[in-house]
């Protein structure tokens, strides 16, 4: 039936449950809400795009362990800087774009999803009670679990600010310098950010392999450029030596750490930060049939589950948790969020109107990376190869580790549209 603005409305209301309210989950929620309201979705940059011809009443519920959106990319900086920390975590209830009757939020942990009955079991953080949530469509966007100091462990903004305060104290009080163990992307960014924030502090990065970024499929040239920039910025880098022992030593007033490397070399430091742990998929709430051997969700290019589970076509996965090619990135997570929103919307329309769905299908993601290295940024993609520079840092990360870039791209300050 046509409404006042000439857009027809689908009668039935759909319930969409999104697990995880970060880049992938929020991108899916916001783009889906745009489409359901009969608008071109916010990530669609095609000026000729036509808005949908139907409005669809829906209720989008986002479940997250955290009480807000945390800018994870900025974690190496926010955990070491109280000002930046305060800017990088916004409670869902304080995000203008989410103040719409389309959205509701549950702070809690999804413990099980029953895809046959389309019910999710949630441990609600507020009540500490188990509750269930029925849904028509589910979008899994809960990413990978990362330990401190790669990511904060707090789930409330207030506690996160306290967690940061303690970490900052530890960083400031480390009178014998700081050692970061692990020269993957996270360890490199951590070491570089600490040096920029605390230029007087001695920062050492230790990596067990002879090349930084040894487990990423990136060319040697890129790894070498990252090494050169780190050294230019006065981060000491030790390559090819595994840390085999870390012992606490009481040196009068303060506790320090003695590290022993595989070749017997010893060094003393005030603080050891580990960036070597592998992140773990949060997919334990799903039927193992939905997962690959790494615990990532098997998907079709439409982002629908491809594993053999009931109602697979009503289940979508986006972001780090989806088994897809390429280095895991927030840009990829947001891109998947848009595609999932489009495809959920198409599926709803097809169910209600009989129209044939037009899915947006993912193409393989190439290996691309942008590394924030203090003042400079280094980037790699197959077309342009390795590049670096301070101007590139501005383009890729701005002044706040891309916090504003992501926030503005998702248009989180925009009030909800009518
Ligand atoms: C230190 C660091 C630096 C990075 N730098 C960059 C960079 O420069 N550029 C880039 O593109 N990418 C970068 N990345 C990668 C990027 O952060 C990820 O690719 C991105 O966060 C993936 O987004 P996502 O929405 O899939 O998951 P996440 O951002 O991990 O969000 C998952 C959400 O799900 C919630 N959750 C988890 N389990 C449950 C559950 N069971 N129930 C309810 N909620 C749950 C979590 O609380 C979280 O809010 C970096 C990552 C790290 C750790």
Description:
With about 425 residues, this protein is of the alpha/beta class. The chain folds into two domains: about 10-75 and about 90-150 and about 280-365, 3-Layer(bba) Sandwich (FAD/NAD(P)-binding domain), CATH 3.50.50; about 175-275 and about 370-395, 3-Layer(bba) Sandwich (FAD/NAD(P)-binding domain). The chain contains nine helices and 23 strands. The protein has helices at about 25-35, 75-80, 80-90, 155-175, 185-195, 220-230, 330-355, 390-395, 405-410, and strands at about 10, 15-20, 55, 60-65, 70, 90, 105-115, 120-125, 130-135, 135-140, 145, 180, 205, 235-240, 245-250, 255-260, 265-270, 270-275, 280, 315, 370-375, 375-380, 385-390. It has a seven-stranded mixed sheet with strand order 9-8-7-4-2-10-20. Strands 14-13-12-18 form a four-stranded parallel sheet, with helices on one face. A hairpin with a 4-residue loop joins strand 16 (about 255-260) and strand 17 (about 265-270). Helix 1 packs parallel to helix 7. It is elongated and about 70 Å long. The mean pLDDT is about 95. The structure holds flavin-adenine dinucleotide (FAD). Flavin-adenine dinucleotide binds near residues 20, 25, 143 and 150. Flavin-adenine dinucleotide binds next to helix 1, strand 4, helix 2, strand 7 and helix 5.
Short overview:
The chain is an alpha/beta fold and 418 residues long. The chain is built from nine helices and 23 strands. Helix content is 26%, strand content 27%.
């Amino acid at each position: 039936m046509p409404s006042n603005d000439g857009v027809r409305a689908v009668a039935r209301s759909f319930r969409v449950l999104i697990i995880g309210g970060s880049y992938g989950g929020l991108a899916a929620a916001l783009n889906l809400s745009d489409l359901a309201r009969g608008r071109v979705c916010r990530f669609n940059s095609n000026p000729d795009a036509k808005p949908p011809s139907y409005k669809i009443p829906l209720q989008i519920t986002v479940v997250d362990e955290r009480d807000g959106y945390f800018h994870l990319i900025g974690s190496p900086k926010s955990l070491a800087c109280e000002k930046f920390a305060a800017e990088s975590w916004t409670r869902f209830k304080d995000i203008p774009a989410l103040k719409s009757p389309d959205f509701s939020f549950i702070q809690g942990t999804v413990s099980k999803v029953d895809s046959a009955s389309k019910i999710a079991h949630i441990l609600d953080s507020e009540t500490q009670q188990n509750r269930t949530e029925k849904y028509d469509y589910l979008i899994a966007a809960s990413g990978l679990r990362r330990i401190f100091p790669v990511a904060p462990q707090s789930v409330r903004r207030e506690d996160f600010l306290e967690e940061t305060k303690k970490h900052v104290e530890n960083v400031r009080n480390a009178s014998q310098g700081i050692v970061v163990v692990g020269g993957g992307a996270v360890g490199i960014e951590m070491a570089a950010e600490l040096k920029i924030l605390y230029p007087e502090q001695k920062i050492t990065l230790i990596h067990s392999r002879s090349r930084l970024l040894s487990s990423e499929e990136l060319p040697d040239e890129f790894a070498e450029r990252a090494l050169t920039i780190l050294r230019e910025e006065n981060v000491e880098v030790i390559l090819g030596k595994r840390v085999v022992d870390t012992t606490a030593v009481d040196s009068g007033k303060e506790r320090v750490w003695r590290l022993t490397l595989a070749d017997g070399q010893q060094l003393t430091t005030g603080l050891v930060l580990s960036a070597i742990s592998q992140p773990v998929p949060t997919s334990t709430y799903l039927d193992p049939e939905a997962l690959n051997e790494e615990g990532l969700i098997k998907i079709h290019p439409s982002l629908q589950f491809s594993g053999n589970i009931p109602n697979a076509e009503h289940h979508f996965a986006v972001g780090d948790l989806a088994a897809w090619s390429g280095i895991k990135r927030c840009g990829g997570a947001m891109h998947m969020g848009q595609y999932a929103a489009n495809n959920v919307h198409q599926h709803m329309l097809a169910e209600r109107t009989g129209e044939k769905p037009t899915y947006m299908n993912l193409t393989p993601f190439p290996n691309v990376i942008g590394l924030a290295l203090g003042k400079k940024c280094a980037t790699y993609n197959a077309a342009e190869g390795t590049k670096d520079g301070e101007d590139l840092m501005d383009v890729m990360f701005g002044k706040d580790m891309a916090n504003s870039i992501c926030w503005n791209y998702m248009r989180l300050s925009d009030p909800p549209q009518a």
